[in-house]
Amino acid sequence: MPAEHAELTGAEEVRWDLADLHPSDDALWTDLDAAEAQAADLAARYRGHLADLDAGALADALAALADVHDRAGRAYTYAYLAWSTETESPEAGARLQRVREAYSRIGQELLFVDVEWARMDPDRARALTEAEELAPYHHYLELKTAARDHVLSEPEERILSEKSVTGWSAWNRFFDETLGAARFVVRGEALPLQQATSKLHDADRGLRRDVHDAVTAGLVDLQRPLSYVFNTVLADKASSDRLRGYDSWIASRNEANEIDGASVDALVEAVTGRYDLVARFYRLKRRLLGLDELFDYDRYAPTAEAAAFVTWDRAREMVTSAYADFDAEMGAAVERFFAERWIDAPPEPGKRGGAFSHGAVPSAHPYILMNYTGQLRDVQTLAHELGHGVHQFLARDQGVYHADTPLTTAETASVFGEMLTFQRTLGALDRPEDRLALLVEKIDDTMATVFRQVTMNRFEARIHAHRRDRGELAPDDFAAHWTSTQAAMYGDSVTLTEGYRTWWSYIPHFVHTPGYVYAYAFGELLVLALYARYQSEGPGFARQYRDLLAAGGSDWPHVLVGRLGIDLRDPGFWDRGLDAIEVLVAEAEALAARLDEG
Predict the structure, then answer these.
(1) Strand ranges (DSSP E) for 77-161?
(2) CA separation for the pair 106, 102 (Å, rounded)
(3) How does 28-49 read in b/e, with b if 16+ C-beta sit within 10 Å?
(4) Closest by alpha carbon to 547, among 562, 537, 536, 532?
(5) Under 8 Å between Cβ of 68 and 400
(6) Whole-angstrom distance, CA of residue 590 vs CA of residue 246
(7) Which residues of 148-161 are buried (b: 16+ CB within 10 A; e: fewer)?
(8) What is the pLDDT along the chain (598 residues), one digit of tens a residue?
(9) Which of 54, 211, 362, 465 could tie 396 with a disulfide, CB 3.0–4.6 Å?
(10) 344: β partners
């Protein structure tokens, strides 16, 4: 991105309004105190008696429990979002910690629900799950039954909940605040991580190399604290899994994702079996860039029109139009995010890096955090997060228990939104060179979403195994696992620099949500199938797709997606998605060949 545009995206004043959650801190504390009182009242009324309730009484108890979760979740969302834009603020950190501690106390009061359901006679639990009065809670109860073997006694659960505030949760905050405060000096300018790494997409190779060196130097300086955070989180995960009886590091994540381990293994095996597509694409990109050797800092280099600068207003129009063309109701939902200030857009010192959509609670609405710098890929990121946001917004009617979705299907809406925006933008281009540039940009994202995420899954598998079997990892151990898993994907198509050995250490998913990353590949390959269905069925598909999003997490993913004619349990499903990626690569190769001839 040209330097003169660095502060002129038009997103500088696009800040979210958290007043929809709480108009003030005083209102926050009042509401949080009320939630604590509600939780204590529920515990006094129902603890020790859950198995004695008939279906109607249990439905009443679950409705009251939902109110507590919504009120507490609203407070937590407010504190977390306020902190995420000012991670260097002691006041914001103190507010978040105070809310976390109250949230933990509320959770401890309500632990008896999970514990008593897990200890309930299986036939009794099954009969209640199928009762008509409990139909609004059916899948929630199914999931509680599925997890019953991993629920501990109430005193044990209380201890784990109490200690998590100063354990895993505290290390997450330390990780975020450490990287939020870090500055990386690029050509004399001290930049936050997000602004520095965004320049890896610049057309200037010298700048990309300087950014690479600056980020590497900064990460080297942080290796000791970041390695310690990783080791602590790995040990904490191993301890939790051992206490709860999970047989592998990924088992609890698969359970939360409502997918069996065999399906995940099939996904990983299918993707790693097609690493040849990665090497094939980067060999093409090396030729398009006119380079003799492609280094890791060259991977996201733009070509031609893909380097275009996009203002915030233009990005808003592009994304909103893409959604509205697909479905008017979804387009209207997207517009609300902009019009009603549900987005925080500009990069700022102390702001959390990356992007996310926070679903908040059903009684409120989602919020989106961006670090918008005006690159074309930022438009795709905006489309991605708005996919999450629309999904969360449409699923609110499912209520607290079913509004959220497992991570696998959560990524479906986001990646589908990217695809809509990409296809609309591609269709507006006439010149073959512009189409090729945008197609390469899209394949770049696909490689990152499918293949790179699976290599990170492989890295995670190694470091979790290492920590459990051999003890704490030194920085060089992390680096060795990182480079070997990355090199397996790139082969000889990309030269990995010595500095790249440290780049595992800033990726937040490894700390925040162990096991998360394969969900990206799951979502991308599922979207390729959904988009193919849309192309064959036309406009009528939009309503089916909207219904899928509105269903939230009210049933098993394979059941919800199966309503659209897609079988997630078909062993060949992943291969068909990977074949679709090969078609994109072949299209880019053919376009490049025609341009060479012309």
Answers:
(1) none
(2) 6
(3) bbebbeebbebbeebbeebbee
(4) 562
(5) no
(6) 48
(7) bebbbebeebbebb
(8) 444 445 689 999 999 999 999 999 999 999 999 999 999 999 999 999 999 999 999 999 999 999 999 999 999 999 999 999 999 999 999 999 999 999 999 999 999 999 999 999 999 999 999 999 999 999 999 999 999 999 999 999 999 988 888 888 899 999 999 999 999 999 999 999 989 999 998 999 999 999 999 999 999 999 999 999 999 999 999 999 999 999 999 999 999 999 999 989 999 999 999 999 999 999 999 999 999 999 999 999 988 755 568 899 999 999 999 999 999 999 999 999 999 999 999 999 899 988 999 999 999 999 999 999 998 889 999 999 999 999 999 999 999 999 999 888 888 899 999 999 999 888 887 888 888 988 998 999 899 999 999 999 999 999 999 999 999 999 999 999 999 999 999 999 999 999 999 999 999 999 999 999 999 999 899 999 899 889 999 989 999 999 999 999 999 999 999 999 888 888 788 998 999 999 999 999 999 999 888 6
(9) 362
(10) 369
List the beta bridge partners of residue 309. Answer: 375
Please state, in angstroms and rounded to a whole number, the distance separating the CA atoms of residues 420 and 557: 22
Q: Which two tokens stand for residue 386?
A: 């708005």
Cβ distance 455 to 424 under 8 Å? no
Which amino acid appears at position 265 of this protein? D
As given in the structure block, the two tokens for residue 383 are 């489309």
Q: Are 558 and 510 in contact (CB under 8 A)?
A: no
Q: What is the pLDDT of residues 292-335, one digit of tens each?
A: 999 999 999 988 755 568 899 999 999 999 999 999 999 999 99
> Cα–chain-centroid distance for residue 116?
32
Name the one residue in this structure whose structure tokens are 């079997």: 469
Angle subtended at Cα 339 by Cα 337 and Cα 342, rounded to the nearest 5 degrees = 35
Put simply, whether the predicted model's pTM sits higher than 0.70 gets the answer yes
214-218 own/partner pairs: CB under 8 Å, 24+ apart: 214/184, 214/185, 214/186, 215/184, 215/503, 216/497, 216/499, 216/500, 216/502, 216/503, 217/184, 217/185, 218/182, 218/183, 218/184, 218/185, 218/193
Q: What angle do CA 365, 370, 372 make, to 5 degrees?
A: 145
Taking the CA atoms of the chain, what radius of gyration do you get in angstroms? 24
d(CA 304, CA 203): 9
367 forms beta bridges with 358
Residues paired with 103 in a beta bridge: none
- E strand or H helix that includes residue 369: strand 367-369
How far is 384 from 140, CA to CA, in rounded Å?
A: 27
Per DSSP, what are the bridge partners of residue 343? Answer: 368
Give the Cα separation of 322 and 308 in Å (integer).
Answer: 19
C-alpha–C-alpha distance, residues 93 and 52, integer Å: 43
